[in-house]
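Lab notebook, bench 4. We co-purified these components, and the gel suggests they stay together. Before we commit to crystallization screens, I want a quick structural picture of the whole thing.
Request: model the full complex, all chains together.
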Amino acid sequence: MTVLIEQRRKEIDLDKLVQRDRVHRSVYTDPEIFEFEMERIWGKAWIYVGHESQVKEPGQYFTTTIARQPVVMTRHTDGKVYVLFNRCAHKGAELVGDTCGKIKEFLCCYHGWRFHLDGTLLSIPLEKGYDGSGFGREDPKSNMQRVPRFDSYRGFVFASLSKEGPDLKTWLGGVASSIDNMADRAPDGELEVTGGAFRYEHDSNWKFFVENLNDLMHPMVAHQSSSLTARIVGKKELPADKPLPSALEILSPFTESYTFFDDMGLHAFDYGHGYSGGKMSIHACYSDIPEYNARMEKAYGEERVKEIFSVNRHNTVFYPSATIKGAIQTMRVVRPIAVDKTIIESWTFRLKGAPDELLHRSILYCNLINSSANLVGPDDQEAYRRQQLGLETQGSDWITMHRDLDKDEDLGDGHTYARGSSDLAFRNQFRAWKAYMSEGGR
Amino acid sequence: MSSEADMKAFAFHHRVSQFLFHEARLLDEQRWSEWEQLFTEEGTYWAPATPGQPDPINHVSLIYENALLRKVRLARFGNPNAYSLQPFPRSSHMLSNVMIDAHDEKAGTVLVTSRFLMVEYRRDVNNFFAGEYVHDLIEEGGAFKIRQKKASLVDCDGTHPSSNIYF
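Here is the predicted assembly.
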């Protein structure tokens, strides 16, 4: 980092950007603040990489980015998963260019350096040329470098670019239970990524997407044209005495009333995490699949199944990089590209041991809600884009976070609750934002 | 091949091509209800999300719609609260390389492959989509109906901006 940049970062006064009840527009529009976020938030927090089921066998790899840096998740012959920087130790070329694949070892396309799947050096052509040079295989820099920390929780692999910080389990805190509930919904207790992925370009700041996940005042407005239309078309086209097709079961709840969303409630935790819903959500009213219920009861017993199904959360946010919907087994992953450009990936999971209908419903949900060509997502994207443009004005420097200020309920252990229409999730994310951005914070 | 058979094949190819051009024109001219009627009752529209995707059930798709979902999408086009459609996008579909891959005269079924290039314009931005169409058609009462229109984007597994209208 240049001295000039370091100097300018010192001049950024966080108290002038984020206050307890409002946030300054420049956090969404200033490219310099974006670069600073990449370093302080995305460079420190645990960032979601991928799921262990994407690298089931030794040799399988999956590539992605952390704070825009290319990384590769591998399964080594020792059976363990590694997260490495996707960079040759020699002249820096990316070692694999595909999103995923299977290899025996890494082979650099440029000068033929080879590395094991855990990143350690295998061979250098004419290695003797380095004799006495001060560089060679004894030097740890001759290996592919590992991302400073990586760990997984029930198959979900996260990595941190920072050597220091809380361990993954501590960092997940109260939202680890959302991952548990998603995995517990599998009769075999395990999840598996399947069914492909979407990558949806958003021409807007990453925080708009992350904030929107638990903004329960928007669905009935932004999604009127899709959800309400689906209800109307359904009423007109379908017999009233027959159950709704899954597609309409999925689309209809987006235009539930303010009261419905208020009752869903918001839960906030340390590090900016949180979820909405709890006992009920917009995913609570999907039709039963009897064969699935039977398999669950066989696996867990009636009591435990009741307990598992009694948890019905909407979006759980692992701030800043990922969000899951346990009740419908989907996940979205945030990859910031620039201050006004973000890629949102969307994944579906199979509940191991469950009948295929569950996966089919997850896939249908993703098609209808998360695809770039779907009926719901483009209206969210439109709102973020208009925010990105609107915040360029001099109209006001501030965005309000006042709704239900000081009305949060402290449930202990860093767990805070508020009704659905509160700005709690918004305030909680910015509390974490400020802590990460502070010198030595987090 | 006799010249008579040549002429017949040529005329049939022409008829099929004209149908595809007509279908594309209805989209570009936003004549949605006429477009909707080109499908059979069970007809599907499918835009896969991965090359060579075997089916729309076990893998996500950019769009997979039956008659009911097409009705929802098309009804939404006229909704005053569809904010991502304000202003409404305009499109231009170009079609070529029309090849008849299968034709069962008795059953009246035709499988046609073509290549397309589509531009979607909205708010000063042109988005380009290119790929392959496979039309699974059936002749009913002297007119073609679509059993399935499959639009496989050349970058179907790539990153995409929002798009609301049909490829």
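Chain A touches chain B through 48 residues (CB under 8 Å). Worth comparing against the SEC data before the next meeting. The mean pLDDT of chain A is 95.
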